[in-house]
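Table S2 (continued). Query chain:
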Amino acid sequence: MPLEYILYLGTIEPRKNIERIIRAFIKYKNEVNDDLKFVIVGKKGWKYDNIMKL
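Corresponding output:
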């Protein structure tokens, strides 16, 4: 596990708005040069396929 990370813990489905979180993290990584990682932990929920494509 990386030393610096953001952890998402919850079901992976659209109602959790994780897609927006991922897009914001991607934007952050494009603007800031650091080693921060985004770790997703959770059960696959409904319509999770679209989220996993990000």
